[in-house]
Amino acid sequence: MPDVASATAEAEPPRATPPPRVAELAGGVGGAKLAQGLQALLGDRLTVVVNTGDDLERHGLAIWPDHDTVMYTLAGLDDRERGWGIRDETWTAMDQLGRLGEETWFRLGDRDLATHIVRSARLAAGERPTDVARHLQRALGVAATILPMTDAPVRTEVRTDDGWLDFQTYFVGRQQQPTVHEVRFVGAAEAAPTPEVLASFDALRPTDAIVVAPSNPIVSVGPLLALDGLRSATAAARARGVPVIAVSGIVGGRALKGPADRMLVSLGHESSALGVALLYADWVDAFVIDTVDADLAPAIEALGLRVVVTDTIMTDDAARSRLAGDVLRAI
Amino acid sequence: MPDVASATAEAEPPRATPPPRVAELAGGVGGAKLAQGLQALLGDRLTVVVNTGDDLERHGLAIWPDHDTVMYTLAGLDDRERGWGIRDETWTAMDQLGRLGEETWFRLGDRDLATHIVRSARLAAGERPTDVARHLQRALGVAATILPMTDAPVRTEVRTDDGWLDFQTYFVGRQQQPTVHEVRFVGAAEAAPTPEVLASFDALRPTDAIVVAPSNPIVSVGPLLALDGLRSATAAARARGVPVIAVSGIVGGRALKGPADRMLVSLGHESSALGVALLYADWVDAFVIDTVDADLAPAIEALGLRVVVTDTIMTDDAARSRLAGDVLRAI
Question: What is the predicted ipTM?
Answer without folding.
Answer: 0.90
